[in-house]
Design brief:
The protein has helices spanning 18-27, 50-59, 73-83, 98-106, 153-166, 181-190, 199-202, 207-215, and strands at residues 5-8, 32-38, 63-69, 87-91, 111-116, 134-138, 172-176, 194-197. By secondary structure, it is α/β, with parallel strands linked by helices.
Length: 216
């Protein structure tokens, strides 16, 4: 199994002091920064774009894990890759031809992930597993932070974890949504190795302890 990665979601950071907040979680022991990119079309919310990713890249050497919630993942993904992303994930339902998007993003020199919302079957990811660096299982509906963890998530994670293991792959299995010290144990037991947490880290004064509690 891959080593555990903790990826604080900057959606919960203080955008007036974003650089400082990101340095704070890095010093507290975070491994990656999770960057939620929403275009206001694929999901109703609107967040950050390539300009902010470019600024983050200048301010931090941390691995930038960019989760695209956009209607045109290839075109937008190319811009995010050029801005400095290390990994770009896109939603299965956002692409007419997911394989073509995977190939197009690879050409940009980034790692590639595929995302499924709660309403999609994990088996839909199976045809692409060998071509992916990461699968992101949403344990909430994508688009807004602060939602409650969905009890169906561990089962969906376990289905993918078993398939990844069966094929002998190193594909990372990431989970995002309602992750805290309690739910992190559930998803790790199911096979997740990459945990995205927003308020459970950025919402805490003692971020070192918050991150350690996710690793415990």
């Amino acid at each position: 199994m891959n080593e555990l990665v903790i990826a604080p979601s900057i959606l919960s950071a203080d955008f007036a002091a974003l650089g400082e907040d990101c340095r704070s979680v890095e010093h507290a022991g975070a491994d990656w920064l999770h960057v939620d990119v929403m275009d206001g079309h694929f999901v109703p919310n609107l967040t950050i774009g390539p300009v902010v990713v470019e600024s983050l890249r200048k301010a931090s050497s941390m691995f930038l894990d960019c989760h695209l919630m956009v209607a045109d993942p290839l075109e937008y993904g190319r811009r995010i890759a050029k801005a400095g992303a290390d990994l770009v994930s896109f939603h299965l339902e956002a692409a007419m031809d997911p394989g073509a998007v995977i190939d197009g993003l690879r050409e940009c020199g980034v790692q590639v992930g595929l995302v499924i919302n709660p309403g999609r079957s994990p088996e839909e990811i199976f045809p692409y597993l060998e071509r992916l660096d990461l699968v992101l299982v949403m344990s909430i509906w994508a688009g807004f932070g602060g939602q409650k963890f969905m009890d169906s998530a561990p089962g969906r994670i376990e289905t993918l974890a078993n398939q990844i293991q069966h094929r002998g792959l190193k594909t990372r299995l990431e989970v995002d949504g309602g992750i805290n010290a309690t739910t992190s144990r559930l998803v790790r037991d199911a096979g997740a190795d990459t945990l995205v947490a927003g308020t459970a880290i950025f919402g805490q004064t003692d971020r070192l302890t918050a991150i350690q509690s996710l690793r415990a």
